[in-house]
């Protein structure tokens, strides 16, 4: 099994900011944080400013994460939600029956993988 990637924490970003401003090399910072030098290099490469600012980097990270989440198809309160709820609760349909009904009603609307 390959290596597991974990995102930089706030503390790691703060150490990165301090060490970069002190002129430390990426490899020495990576060794200190027990991280890959390429991870830190990519983190520094994402910056738009000349100086690395940990707070701004964390904000941009959260924005990237938020925008990468798929939009929900079934939202509580919508007509589709109400229809599915009625089929499940009132008519006691099976989820497979509801899925077949939705596929026949919207043949062009294929789920994205």
Structure explained in plain terms:
It is built from six helices and no strands. It is mostly helical and 113 residues long. Helix 2 packs across helix 3 (37-45). The two termini are 24 Å apart.
Describe the structure concisely for a colleague.
By secondary structure, the protein is an all-alpha fold. It has helices spanning 10-21, 26-33, 37-45, 54-67, 79-89, 95-105.
Give the assembly state of these chains: single chain
**Beta-strand residue percentage:** under 5%
Counting H and I runs of at least 4 residues, what is the number of helices?
A: 6
The helix/strand series, from N terminus to C terminus, equals HHHHHH
Report mean pLDDT, rounded to a whole number.
Answer: 91
Q: Note the overall shape.
A: elongated
The count of strands amounts to 0
Helix fraction bin: 55-70%
> Which regions are unreliable across 5 or more consecutive residues at pLDDT < 50?
none
- Evaluate the radius of gyration: 23 Å
Largest sheet: none
Rounded to the nearest angstrom, the distance between the terminal CA atoms is 24 Å
The assigned structural class equals mainly alpha
